Amino acid sequence: MEFLRPVSLGEALEMKAARPEAVPIAGGTDVMVELNFDHRRPAALLDLTRVAELAEWSRDDSVVTFGAALPYTRLINELGTDLPGLAIASRTVGSPQIRNRGTVGGNLGAASPAGDTHPVLLASDAVVEVASARGTRSIPASEFYLGVKRNALEPDELITSIRLPKATGPQQFAKVGTRNAMVIAVCSFAISLHPNESRAGAAIGSAAPTPRRVRQAEDFLTEVLDWESPQALPDSAKRRFGELVASAAEPIDDVRGSAAYRKHALAVLARRALGWAWDAYREGERSCA
Amino acid sequence: MTPQRSAYTRRTVLKSTAAATAVTHLTSAPAIADDGGTSEITLSVNGQRHRVAVEPRVTLLDALRERLGLTGTKKGCDRGECGACTVLVDGERIKSCLTLAVMRQGAEITTVEGLARGEELHPVQEAFIRRDAFQCGACTPGQIMSAVACINEGHTGSEAEIREWMSGNLCRCAAYQNIVAAVADAAKETPR
């Protein structure tokens, strides 16, 4: 196995162009499991840990852009205020040791339907910035996931950064697992309120071949939420929202849970997360008034 | 630079024999990429620099245990789930099974062997003994390294907080109650 160690993004892209089969490695928390158990024998590894620009971030008034190799711990500590939903999801990844190394870029590269950050990226209108020696592309998260562990990257492309609007309203994330640490999600749910657009984004994970937005459920919220003078949501509306979320799922039976359980649990997660987010919005509106 | 202790055990001899056999096979099958290349790297462990020859696929964990003879760091699951292989890299706790040795050149690595000052144990080690925070001891080096980081991070405000921030380390003897007590004890004694 060849080990490629670029020190700049330009060099990394040249190497990827010359060796498209090279597997990128940054945090290693996913790739290393495959190597240790011989599930994968890549001809080459592309070590991205020396490419400084991949672990940097920047922000302006409305948008945060962070490098694909920024570890979760730094994302939580340094960007948690601007990206609360992503921070909540990141806090549930693995364990402290995993979060010191794991990255959102790795989550996207692996494109597992169970990746923890995907639902938040979808609900928050994230854009995945990718690059190759040929140039750069911006791929909306909603077009990034193509199938189980398949994404929209071309073989010579690398994920360089993730761009998200700063939160303009409450965001929530919830997942089901057998314990709080070191579990792959049985199912997960994210919601981001966008009061400036009078709408909400919502998405599910680990409940279909890809993470996916739940557009019918989003449309339902556009109908029932009164952003100008927010009222307490009736239970019937929360329940209906949960049903619509569950109906968008196409889960499978596997060792972690049955399809029926996943649908049930998603409806519960969605109902609760909507309640938390909407109550926080109402609270915020009241304190502003 | 310290002289390299030979870390050959029966197991590694068996392994290298198997590798040699595999290489013979590969020469007759040129379609398979050659992966036998080793590179000389320098690892800085517990304040000492070591030159070591490793293949790119060798994890930091295997380099520590089998090349440097530092067997305090334990191999539990080899997939990042159990935490037995936790070490500090530039002060941050990571799982040494989930990183390649070649990726950690230039970093300062601390293993459980690097905590004591001569005969004087680290406060976390003292607390683990005082609180009887282990039974079989297999997870203990990882628990201790994780605890050192947990205390440095300031995540010891309550029992619940300690449990949450020690959640990446499993103890199959279930000595958790005493581990939490030991971490809380050591946190009181450790200036941050």
From TrEMBL, chain A:
TM spans (from-to): none
Record keywords: FAD, Flavoprotein, Oxidoreductase
PROSITE patterns for the chain: FAD_PCMH
Domain FAD-binding PCMH-type: start-end pairs: 1-169
Domain of life the protein comes from: Bacteria
InterPro entries according to UniProt: CO_DH_flav_C, CO_DH_flav_C_dom_sf, Diverse_Substr_Oxidored, FAD-bd_PCMH, FAD-bd_PCMH-like_sf, FAD-bd_PCMH_sub1, FAD-bd_PCMH_sub2, Mopterin_DH_FAD-bd
Coiled-coil stretches noted in the UniProt entry, renumbered to this chain: none
Listed name of the protein: Carbon-monoxide dehydrogenase medium subunit
From TrEMBL, chain B:
Domain of life: Bacteria
Signal sequence, renumbered to the chain: 1-33
InterPro entries membership: 2Fe-2S-bd, 2Fe-2S-bd_dom_sf, 2Fe-2S_ferredoxin-like_sf, 2Fe-2S_ferredoxin-type, 2Fe2S_fd_BS, Aldehyde_Oxdr_Iron-Sulfur, Beta-grasp_dom_sf, TAT_signal
One Pfam family of this chain: Fer2_2
Name of the protein this chain belongs to: Xanthine dehydrogenase yagT iron-sulfur binding protein subunit
Keywords from the named record: Iron, Metal-binding, Oxidoreductase, Signal
Membrane is among the record's keywords: no
Domain (2Fe-2S ferredoxin-type): residue spans on this chain: 39-115
Native species: Kibdelosporangium persicum
